[in-house]
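Why does residue order matter? Because the sequence determines the fold. Keep that principle in mind as you read this record.
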Amino acid sequence: VMKHLAALIVHAADLSNAADAWPVSKLWAQWCNAEFHAQGDHSRRFHPELPVADMFNRSKADVPRSQLEFIETFAAPTFTALSQVAPRTAAEGLQGCKVNAAICRAIMQRNKQCMLQRAMNVLGLGNLPRFL
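Structure:
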């Protein structure tokens, strides 16, 4: 039991960047994605016969979506599990995950609106309606 508890604590610490204050969490996400893109570049150069996953492809990567998926798939469930043995620590982690997930969603929405506006401009259709 103690070995599993220790593993959970180390795992939570490893994923804690997703629960840090937004400026720190954003910086970690940028660093991780820079590493992913470098791996994708390396793979494309030395193994052109293999496909490169979107998150490793700098021209297709969606960093806010990747970070949101990381939070929802790994970080939040880890802090939920940790809440069984360290409720206060886990509550802080879960709150950080919740805030950062909301920021990622807002960035994704803003990016979507910017893309729509660019398309409208290219098509000569003017500005997006206010309700979008």
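The two ends are 51 Å apart (CA to CA).
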